[in-house]
């Protein structure tokens, strides 16, 4: 008998960021020969366009403990929403499908801060580095860490502030570092940048649009979370 390894144990306890579980009947109906799975993944593009947050793939799986027509939405392995579809014959199938997509969309916006993972920020920073290497290098040399960036971005999301254009946010972070240099001879590792201070600096650079402006721009859903 093979020994149960730490790697196997870790993989078993690791949860996807966002998962859609469905009962067998619902899974067969929506995931066999339909465009539903593609439409679920398209939601990620919508969220990115409106908020600047790149979500990891939304896992779609059979839920062994789900009723045949039941679905459950999990956030990092914990229930975030559930419901049932195709139980009312007076409702068109397409309408039920749209209702599920709207439920997933709503959770994406409501739980956006939790959906922004540390590892996701690390990968997004790598993308920025490939497009603006000097900017990222300057920030890293001046004391920015992925953890600090992650904290700042989560604060901005909490204040309903979009994270794009991302390079512009990085430039404002650099401006913050230039305006607030380390004092005297104190080594950088002895001081700590406070994420709230950096976030407030960014918010003052570009105030969040008013509700009327966002509605005119079509970002109504983002405003309503």
Would you give an account of this structure?
- The chain is of the alpha+beta class and 225 residues long.
- Helix content is 56%, strand content 10%.
- It has a 4-stranded mixed beta sheet.
- A hairpin with a 2-residue loop joins strand 3 (70-75) and strand 4.
- Helix 3 (36-51) runs parallel beside helix 4.
- Keywords: Cell membrane, Membrane, Transmembrane, Transmembrane helix.
- It is a multi-pass membrane protein.
- Pfam families: FHIPEP (PF00771).
- Its main location: membrane.
Label this structure with key terms.
225 residues, alpha+beta, Glutaredoxin, Helicase, Ruva Protein, domain 3, 2 domains, 4-stranded mixed sheet, 4 strands, elongated, disordered C terminus
Distance between the termini: 51 Å
Main beta sheet, described?
4 strands, mixed
Count of strand segments: 4
Helix content: 55-70%
Principal-axes geometry comes out as elongated
Rg measurement, Å:
21 Å
Secondary-structure element order, as H and E?
HEHHEEEHHHHHHHHH
CATH hierarchy: architecture of the largest domain: 3-Layer(aba) Sandwich
- The CATH class name of the largest domain reads Alpha Beta
Q: How confident is the prediction overall: mean pLDDT?
A: 87
Please give the domain count: 2
> CATH superfamily assignment of the largest domain?
FHIPEP family, domain 1
Topology-level CATH name of the largest domain: Glutaredoxin
Unreliable stretches, pLDDT < 50, 5 or more residues?
A: 219-225
Total helical segments: 12
Strand order of the largest sheet: 2-1-3-4
Strand percentage, roughly?
5-15%
**Backbone structural class:** alpha+beta
